[in-house]
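We keep the chain:
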Amino acid sequence: MSDKRASLPISRRRALGLIAVTAGGGSFMPSTAPAAQVSSYAGLALFDAGAGVCAITPEATEGPFYFDPKLERADIAEGKSGVGLTVKLQVVDATCRPLAGARVDVWHCDAQGHYSGYPGQGDGQDVDTSGQTFL
């Protein structure tokens, strides 16, 4: 079997960084930053163990969060087509030390920018996905 991967306009490291920023949202990080850290950074770190790199990344907006606290799934496709993605995360503090027991909520939209379970989406705010759980 050959390994055919789609070419992306951003690097793998940048994509994983964006996922880490989005998933963590800074809520697992300490509220005070190290003295050497620029004030616009919230202590959220991107850690690449293989490269021995831990770079502080800017804080991101938190949410939206899933609408059903009991909704935890590994397969969110529900029959929709798409490209599989495996995400491996490690939540670390501003000094790049792993944080035990941290929970990560990964949130994302579909190809049209819609989230499941929410009304008033789209440019005309006419898309209503209430009651749907496709993402």
About this structure: The chain has one helix and two strands. Residues 9-33+40-72+85-111 form one domain.
